[in-house]
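We were asked to recover a plausible sequence for a given structure. The inputs and outputs are reproduced exactly as logged, with field labels preserved.

PROBLEM: sequence recovery
POSITIONS: 694
GIVEN STRUCTURE:
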């Protein structure tokens, strides 16, 4: 009997769709790659999942030489790549099920990626050019029922076209620029797999420019004058109104003028300031707040938010909206949240007040509202999920609360004609801050009660010598904001771009430091082929893709334009290939000396470093004294290796962190063996003999 085939993006989504639409029972078919059969209003249905993209772009041609330029592309099944064999079961499921279907429905995430995933499945597996489209922002039963009832009779082709364009541009720029860099290095006699991309390059450039600012920074001396004293037994510190003095003599002159003179309150200004509640979360703001409060990377936050969405606990996280429209049933959500003990009292306050109009921001998203909790009660969350869920719930509730009332106090203190300022900030009515809880972080500076004309007791003016400090390094939160402001990448791709820069060892640490390798790539391209790291070119293509999504430009036109730009860039790159390659080689040599240093060789006192063989491409720890000293150690050949500052307690060599696919990172002393974490939190290496036995 013919049935309607509903294609979902993830297994958890297909399961929720089936149980939401089913008249009664749902039959689960299969084990690892499963699907669901059910009836809706008496009609037969099957909900089948993909696992993200079942098709990826690749270079055409059976003889795929590792050269460039590459412009002939085609879509191929993901499972044809060795690392993605697991996708074949899901591919085969859909291929089998589409034969008995007489109606097709796309129920993938309603965004560019989801639309592209469904379209490729329908055209390449099912042989369909169109189908129905469900649009939903949460995986709750009510939303899914409504989404099917109001499903569009056609696919969302503007989003599909924008998605196909983005994939083409990212692949074309990624494969060509990465090959160009790597081959330039190889031709110069070096070996390292390098990458560059349409968004990756400009982002690395921004980070590199900040690194150069910090390196070039020369501290400058300045002086500050502080008044220390007591009022009613409480200490106050006031700063001279000039702030920084760049001439020491000027500061000393004022200091001498104040010595032994009485300090008196000249004026006092108090004003009440209303602090409005925050806007609802868009993805970027959620990632920034998660990093600020928990130290979670943007990618980690997105992964956690996605898992909460798949459990129907929050709305779709990949949104740029700061809006909470009334049609979401905001009152009902708050009533449902009140069933959770943690939030019950806060929700009751909002329900008693009876106003359900949130503070909204300016940013909007035509596909989804801001990130909000659905009100469903979590069954079992791990500690990471619990933290992000709590942050989202409290942010949501705080948007409905009243503005906080804060008192700002400015006091002017006179010392023999010199003016010193003292400031105080206190919260009078916390209001929304109580709802946001520990995440509402504002400076509190309480001043003692002061009156005009009051004398400061035990007053003394002090002169402090200080230095200017270099600009702060970008954090993962602040660089996200810069990328958003400059139009680099999208809300859904920025986290992955940062993750890639870390994986390529172009950047390190949470307070982002560009490595010598990352600096070498940026400087070589800036000098010889700056178009590759141009922010303007990337922004232009982002705007073009927005116009495609609005139906005002055609995919073919934008892809052809991008190919033309890329050809021009590659011609220029080829002209400077020799210089780029030699500069990259020198940069990698410095990188390996600094970042791959393990310790002092116990045999010859040379330097032990991670080395990759030019002949076999295998990696090992070798001595700088080679060939006279052949002391060294083997290393795992799979996974990313990072030399930590932490040292082995037994031998003093630096510990190496190993991060392998689908495994938690583990630590290794190249001489002593695995580093085992003890219950007392001390880590001691396990001897190789013990490791072999275990």
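RECOVERED SEQUENCE:
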């Amino acid at each position: 009997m013919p049935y309607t085939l509903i294609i979902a993006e993830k297994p958890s989504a297909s399961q929720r769709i089936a149980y939401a639409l089913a008249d009664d029972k749902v039959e689960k078919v299969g084990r690892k790659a499963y699907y669901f059969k059910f009836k809706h209003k008496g009609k037969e249905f099957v909900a089948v999942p993909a696992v993200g993209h079942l098709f990826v772009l690749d270079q055409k041609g059976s003889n795929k030489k590792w050269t460039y330029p590459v412009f002939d592309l085609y879509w191929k099944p993901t499972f044809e790549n060795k690392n993605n064999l697991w996708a074949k079961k899901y591919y085969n499921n859909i291929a089998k099920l589409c034969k008995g279907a007489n109606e097709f429905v796309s129920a993938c995430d309603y965004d560019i990626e989801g639309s592209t995933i469904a379209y490729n499945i329908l055209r390449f597996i099912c042989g369909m050019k169109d189908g129905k489209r469900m649009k939903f922002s949460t995986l709750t039963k009510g939303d899914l029922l409504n989404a099917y009832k109001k499903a569009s009779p056609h696919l969302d082709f503007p989003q599909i076209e924008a998605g196909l364009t983005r994939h083409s541009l990212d692949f074309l720029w990624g494969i060509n620029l990465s090959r160009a860099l790597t081959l330039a290095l190889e031709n110069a006699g070096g070996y390292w797999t390098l990458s560059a991309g349409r968004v990756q390059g400009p982002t690395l450039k921004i980070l590199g420019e900040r690194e150069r600012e910090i390196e070039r920074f020369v501290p400058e001396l300045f002086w500050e004058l502080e008044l220390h004293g007591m009022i009613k037994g409480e200490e106050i510190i006031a700063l001279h109104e000039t702030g920084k003095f760049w001439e020491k003599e000027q500061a000393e002159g004022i200091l001498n003028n104040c010595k032994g003179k009485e300090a008196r309150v000249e004026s006092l200004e108090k004003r009440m300031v209303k602090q409005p509640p925050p806007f609802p979360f868009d993805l970027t703001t959620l990632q920034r707040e998660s990093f600020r409060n928990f130290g979670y990377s943007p990618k980690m936050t997105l992964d956690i938010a996605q898992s909460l969405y798949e459990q129907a606990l929050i709305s779709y996280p990949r949104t740029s909206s700061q809006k909470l429209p009334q049609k979401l049933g905001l009152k009902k959500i708050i009533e449902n949240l009140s069933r959770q003990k943690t939030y019950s009292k806060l929700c009751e306050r909002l329900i008693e007040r009876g106003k359900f109009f949130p503070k909204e921001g300016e940013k909007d998203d035509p596909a989804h509202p801001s990130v909000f909790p659905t009100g469903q009660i979590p069954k079992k969350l791990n500690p990471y999920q619990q933290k992000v869920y709590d942050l989202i719930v409290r942010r949501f509730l705080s948007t409905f609360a009243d503005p906080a009332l804060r008192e700002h106090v400015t006091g002017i203190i006179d010392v023999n004609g010199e003016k010193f300022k003292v400031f105080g900030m206190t919260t009078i009515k916390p209001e929304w801050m109580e709802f946001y809880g520990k995440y509402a972080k504002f400076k509190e500076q309480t001043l003692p009660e002061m009156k005009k004309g009051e004398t400061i007791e035990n007053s003394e003016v002090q002169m402090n010598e200080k230095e200017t400090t270099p600009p702060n390094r970008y954090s993962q939160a602040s660089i996200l904001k810069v990328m958003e402001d400059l139009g680099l990448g999208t809300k859904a791709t920025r986290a992955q771009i940062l993750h890639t820069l870390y994986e390529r060892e172009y950047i390190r640490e949470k307070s982002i430091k560009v490595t010598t390798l990352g600096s070498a790539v940026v400087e070589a391209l800036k000098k010889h082929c700056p178009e590759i790291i141009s922010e303007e070119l990337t922004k232009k293509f982002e705007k073009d893709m927005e116009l495609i999504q609005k139906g005002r430009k055609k995919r073919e036109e934008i892809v052809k334009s991008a190919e033309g730009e890329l050809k021009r860039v590659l011609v220029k790159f080829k002209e400077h290939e020799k210089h780029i390659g030699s500069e990259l080689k020198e940069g990698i040599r410095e990188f390996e000396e600094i970042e791959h240093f393990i310790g002092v060789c116990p045999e010859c006192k040379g330097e032990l470093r991670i080395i990759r063989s030019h002949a076999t491409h295998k990696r090992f720890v070798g001595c700088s004294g080679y060939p006279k000293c052949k002391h060294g150690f083997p290393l795992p050949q799979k996974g990313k290796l990072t030399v930590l500052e932490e040292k082995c307690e037994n031998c003093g060599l630096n510990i190496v962190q190993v991060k392998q696919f689908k495994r938690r990172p583990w630590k290794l002393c190249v001489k002593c063996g695995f580093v085992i974490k003890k219950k007392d939190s001390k880590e001691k290496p396990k001897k190789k003999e013990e490791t072999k036995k275990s």
